[in-house]
Structures are given as structure tokens and as C-alpha cells.
Amino acid sequence: MIRLFLLILLCSSNTLNAKKNHLPFKLTENLTTEMIESEYKKIGSALFSVLFWDIYNSTLYTESGKFIEGSAQQTIVFKIDYFKDITRDDLIEHTVEQWQHLKIHENEYLHFLPELAEVWPNISAGDSLTLLIQNQNSRFYFNGNFIGSIEEHSFGSLFLSIWLSPQTSQKTLRSKLLGEIK
Description:
Chalcone_isomerase, Chalcone isomerase, globular, 7 helices, isomerase activity, Chalcone isomerase family protein, alpha+beta, isomerase
């Protein structure tokens, strides 16, 4: 009788583990381009250049292929493929500069800076940094591997405002990401 009970317990444990292992990729530790492109629809893509140097290419994806500004329910993937090396400190500095350009008050972003310093790596040419916003939680992936998350709901939209706000410093890039221009 005890053996039967243990066998049933073992089988049900394996069944539970099987379900756990079949979670959607969005909750796993990896997020490859193939996974993104199979699950999401690309809205737009844009190359960011300074003078004649290409710095990065960014791509915006959602499940529907449409970006709904202010939607807390929408899952968003924002991927940046870098063509130049950039240090973590420079990434953070440029992020702050863009938030300042958008006239976002310091108290809205300063508390995120230590988290970004802990999560973001130094970037080399050929690397990618991807942000997955799902259920208002922000998860970062470096070259497809999970590197950390920011759980505060306001972070994802605050970060994306750098590129998607109507007041962005890069209006053409915004229009391309939103699929308004090809």
C-alpha cells in the first residue's frame, strides 16, 4: 500500500514538473531572436547612427503587431543589436540624458539607476540587449540570456519612452519603430 502511494506521489510529481517545464518561453531564462519572432509580430525596426557611425539597430515587437500606448496589459519586446562597444556606465549616462530630454523628474528614475548598474553589462559590437515587458514587469536579456529584472510597474514604460514618446529626441527612429515609416 505504501509503495502504491509513493508511486502515485512520484507520478503526480513528475506530471507537475512536466507542466512547470512547459511554461511559455517568455518566462524562461533565455529569449532568442527565433523565440521572439515565432511568438511576436514585429511592429518596426530602426537604425540609430551618429554622423556616419551606425551605433545600434532596435526592433519593437508585440503579440498583436500593434503598439498601444499606455496599455498595461500589452506584452512588449524591445531588442537592441549593437554595432559599437559601449560601457555600462555610458549606457546609464545616455539613458539619464534621454530622460532629462523628456523632462522626466529625477525622482521618477533615480531609484532605478543602481538596479540598472547591477543588471546591465558592458556591451561589445555584436551584442544584443532585449527588454521583455510582461504583466508590467521588465526583464532584461543579454545575447538572449536572462540577466535581471525590474519589478516596479512604472519602469518599462519609462524606459521605452526614450524611443516611443512623442517628445523623443529621435523622432524618425520613433516613427520607424512604430511602423509609421519603413
